[in-house]
Amino acid sequence: MDLMKLSVLLPFGLWVHPSIHSLSLVRTVDSCLILACFSCRMMSDYKVDMINDGMQEFFVHFHGPKDSIYQGGVWKVRVELTEAYPYKSPSIGFTNKIYHPNVDEMSGSVCLDVINQTWSPMFDLVNIFEVFLPQLLLYPNPSDPLNGEAASLMMRDKNAYENKVKEYCERYAKPEDISPEEEEEEESDEELSDAEGYDSGDEAIMGHADP
Questions:
Q1: Strand partners for 80
Q2: What are the catalytic residues?
Q3: What domains are defined for the chain?
Q4: pLDDT, tens digit, for every residue of 157-194?
Q5: Region entry Disordered: which residue ranges (predicted)?
Q6: What is the pTM of this model?
């Protein structure tokens, strides 16, 4: 009998044979299903880039909340689903720079209790990108900082802090700052090929110089 007829169809063409009983495989299927549902629900508002054709690591293009000092900025946030998701929170981090007391400037790690400590399986990825991260940007917590400089500046001189946030948005959080790495690598390869072509042409010209 055709196995496809026995398969359980999942969103986006994912499927699993109904005879599968392995807990590890079931967990993998659950993660795939969750990610597929997430992509389906969020695709209209968010761009999602998969990593290495896998289903548990991906980038989400996240825009700063409206009517905030982060408005106009766009960040590529890396998301990694653990084997225990949704019972354990996903790992998230900003890949391009953001100036915020609760985000490490170098690593992009986020200090957010609801993700790091008080996560519940009742939450999902939509909550992270539609509620938790926007709230974090709107209401920073300088008393529990990952970026001590930003926290200190926020408490000492709010205007200077807001100007620094906007400066970072302008310098590091434009759409061109989060272009896919593959495109950048392709452009670099093309530039290198062009340069090699020019070198070869120059050598050919020099080789045919008049005596």
A1: 57, 91
A2: 111
A3: 43-187 (3.10.110.10)
A4: 999 999 999 999 999 999 988 875 544 444 444 444 44
A5: 172-211
A6: 0.69
